[in-house]
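Newbie here. two chains, one complex. Structure please?
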Amino acid sequence: MKLADFVCFKALIPQLESITRDGVIAELVNALDAGGKLGKGNSEKIIKAVIKRENEASTGMGKSVAVPHVKSNVVSDVVAAIGMSEAGVDFSALDKQPVYSVMLLISPVDDPDKHLQAMENLFQHLQTEKFRKFLRQAKTVEAIEDLIHEADDSSTL
Amino acid sequence: MDSVVCEISVEIKNTDGLHMRPAMMFVDIASQYDCDITVSNNETSVDGKSIMQISVLAATYGTKLKIRAEGIDSEKAVESLRELVEDKMFDEPGPEEK
């Protein structure tokens, strides 16, 4: 699986407007919705579900990234949105540091393996310092797109 | 230096596999021990105390993992990790309970 297989290119936000966790989650879910990935009228429900999941345990894994996610029957395939915050957002991350890059994932309910594969893929790249740095530096949608393609083609990014 | 090495093989028995919540439980327990803990599937070996690295294993239901611990408390560490994965199944259902 590649990043381009599940990252929605219509849901890339180089400068998130919101400075709160829940605001960022809503922004990213709405971007997926606008990209036509969530069916009709489901965004509110998804936002609530992602926030609920986040309240159970933070997905701020340290190294300034968070990967909020939830399973939902409104998708039949894994979809992801990516957003960056210049100011940093408090995600109650494991290392207590602000989060600058957020990847939001919505996975189908009945395909746990696919969710794991998408996560694996994401974390392969997120573990690379270079990838995290380039992501944070990406100031345009095109720059994020290029980075995703580059990461998919490279074994070290 | 006393270096005790323990190695066991465990199988993922909960339907959803080693997703983030189970991975965090694993890392929490692993981190309670002083020994070095490595977890591997056939392809990769990762640090058992790093949530990001554990997530990279993408261990699905039925996957067999090798847990290797090295250090003075390695025996206790592998036993509590085995218990978490196979007996408690991360407090999650297996296929027949769904």
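Moderator note: Strands of chain A lie at 7-13, 60-62, 65-66, 69-71, 79-89, 99-107. Residues 96 and 126 of chain A are 18 Å apart (CA to CA). Thread marked as resolved.
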